[in-house]
Design goal:
The protein is mostly helical. It folds into 3 domains: 8-181, Helicase, Ruva Protein, domain 3; 194-217 and 248-307, no CATH class; 336-512, Orthogonal Bundle (Helix Hairpins). The protein is 73% helix and 0% strand. The chain contains 24 helices and no strands. The chain has helices at residues 13-20, 24-32, 37-41, 47-57, 60-70, 80-90, 94-97, 101-111, 122-138, 148-159, 162-175, 187-203, 205-214, 219-227, 236-249, 251-269, 274-282, 292-300, 306-328, 336-348, 354-425, 428-436, 438-442, 450-512. Helix 6 (80-90) crosses helix 9 (122-138) and helix 9 (122-138) crosses helix 10 (148-159). The chain starts with 12 loop residues before the first helix and ends in a 16-residue tail after the last helix. GO terms for molecular function: GTPase activator activity; small GTPase binding. Residues 44-250 form the Rab-GAP TBC domain. Keywords: Coiled coil. It comes from Blepharisma stoltei.
């Protein structure tokens, strides 16, 4: 096979990249042999084969078949994309999937003019509008979320075909599990931030500490960079090269490039305050990253393991699950008897006298409002809990590092004292003889210098300062955590009180109607 033959060593990177998209067999062989990786990371994929390369990397056939099944299209000759557009136009199935098409249209219409890649073309804007509308129809769980417009516009710009761009957008969302980046609450954004923080803290500890002292969290830039895959931050010429790598290796590319960007800008960031850093991170910095080769070279040299990312993800969700379980233990739930009463009230509501019916409805509204407030507060409490847990783990890691440096420092000081004592006892002639001998060459007591000890002491002092700042941050976050927990408890108690009053009030009506299913307690008058 050509892809496995020795001819590869005579091809340049552009020719290898072109060979990659000739057919599927070359694709698989080159990927297995890693022959394509260096080509893509050098940014040498030719523009004329980029669209085909992206399409090859995505499961377009799978998403098309899934969509046909979802939409119950049995005719194999039917154009699925055209049918989606027709159903949207006719309003077919919108109620069934729970999609408010007017709201979605308005939201998309507001964002389209702000999407730079199509801003100067009415025709491209119309194409993008239809793509986003079709996505909302096929993925009602997402509907429309800001950020998808930028992803879709990049794909449309590269593939130049509306229908193919739609299927490729669906393929990207499916292959790289991006749906939870866009559903309400964007749950996976916290995961990506957690993964990014892991490498940020390890690979750029001084900048990470500087950001923390300035009060800047990774969310300042991760939301913008990760949800749009840099499409609102990098110049287009650099962006497509980064996307080439993303299509090859997935999410770890976004982390590697993020670290590379921070590494490039680190000297500038270390001299900036919070406002200046925030501006650079959130604003479009196209002029800073026109040299894609430099950015990709730095990104390629950063080691991010897919296995490690998976481990971080598993631990992240384990921590979340444990925190949710702890919260669930204190959540008020209705008893079986209370559930019977509420079901009875729902079935008999029309036969209850109007004043009583009004009181019951008012109680139900209060409970529904409390449920919404509790859900919002639970999310906030979970987020704060995860932040607190992250700080605690950081403290543990730094404390361990401090212990190691302390041991190294003591060991160095001991060896330094031994070396001084050793050489004091030697007469000059004997010292010269030892140092010139083979034995003298093996001695390591002269390797420890006063500067080494000072350097180690400086690092230890730096870690101690870091720990001090982290303890302060832990104290602040714990205060926020306690406030959120207190508020949750207050709402739970309020909900419990309301539900008990409502159920007692309903039980009175059940007794009056002589249809009580053996109430286990004696009801008493309820004050509203």
């Amino acid at each position: 096979m050509l892809a496995r033959s020795e001819i590869l060593q005579f091809l340049n990177t552009c020719e290898i990249a072109s060979l990659y998209v000739l057919n599927k067999s070359h694709n698989k062989s080159l990927k297995a042999d890693r022959a394509i990786k260096s080509s893509i990371w050098r940014g040498d994929l030719p523009d004329e084969v980029r669209a085909k390369y992206w399409i090859y990397q995505c499961p377009l056939y799978t998403v098309q078949e899934d969509s046909r099944k979802l939409l119950r299209i049995s005719d194999p000759t039917a154009n699925t994309y055209e049918l989606i557009q027709l159903r949207i136009e006719l309003g077919e199935g919108l109620e069934e999937i729970g999609l408010n098409i007017d709201t979605v249209k308005n939201d998309i219409a507001k964002d389209i003019p702000r999407t730079l890649l199509v801003a100067n073309s009415k025709r491209e804007q119309e194409k993008l509008f239809r793509i986003l509308l079709a996505l909302a129809y096929v993925k009602p769980s997402i509907g429309y979320c800001q950020g998808i417009n930028f992803l879709a516009s990049v794909i449309l710009k590269v593939v130049r075909n509306e229908e193919v761009a739609f299927w490729l957008l669906l393929g990207v969302i499916k292959k790289w599990d991006m749906e939870n980046m866009f559903v309400p609450g964007v749950p996976d954004l916290s995961l990506r931030e957690h993964q990014m923080n892991h490498y940020f803290m390890i690979l750029l500890p001084d900048l990470y500490s500087h950001f923390r002292r300035a009060g800047i969290t990774s969310s300042f830039f991760i939301t913008r960079w990760f949800m749009t895959l840099f499409s609102t931050y990098l110049p287009f010429s650099t962006l497509v090269k980064v996307w080439d790598c993303f299509f090859l290796e997935g999410w770890k590319v976004i982390i590697k490039v993020s670290i590379a960007i921070l590494k490039e800008l680190k000297p500038m960031f270390l001299q900036m305050d919070v406002e200046e850093i925030s501006f650079v991170l959130r604003d479009t910095q196209k002029e800073l990253h026109l040299d894609y080769k430099s950015l990709l070279e730095k990104g390629f040299g950063i080691v991010v393991s897919s296995k490690e990312l998976k481990n971080i993800e598993e631990n992240f969700y384990k921590d979340q699950a444990n925190l949710k379980m702890q919260a669930a233990e204190h959540t008020h739930t209705l008893t079986d008897q209370e559930m019977i009463m509420l079901r009875w009230a729902k079935s008999q509501l029309s036969s209850i006298d109007p004043p009583t019916r009004k009181d019951i409805k008012e109680f139900q509204k209060k409970l529904e409002k409390l449920d919404i407030d509790l859900e919002t507060l639970h999310k906030h409490h979970l987020s704060v809990s995860m932040e607190l847990l992250h700080v605690q783990k950081e403290i543990e890691s730094l404390a361990e590092k401090k212990r190691n440096y302390f041991r190294i420092l003591k060991d160095m000081e001991t060896k330094f004292k031994q070396s001084k004592s050793f050489f004091k006892k030697l007469v000059p002639g004997k010292m010269k003889k030892i140092l010139s001998s083979k034995t003298g060459n093996k001695l390591n007591i002269t390797e420890i210098k006063q500067e080494d000890i000072a350097d180690c002491q400086q690092k230890l002092n730096y870690i101690e300062q870091e720990l001090k700042e982290l303890y302060m941050q832990q104290k602040e976050k714990y205060s926020i955590y306690r406030d959120a927990q207190t508020r949750v408890e207050e709402l739970k108690e309020k909900k419990q009180s309301y539900s008990e009053q409502l159920c007692e009030f309903i039980s009175l009506q059940m007794v009056k109607n002589d249809s009580s299913p053996r109430i286990r307690h004696t009801p008493h008058p309820v004050s509203f």
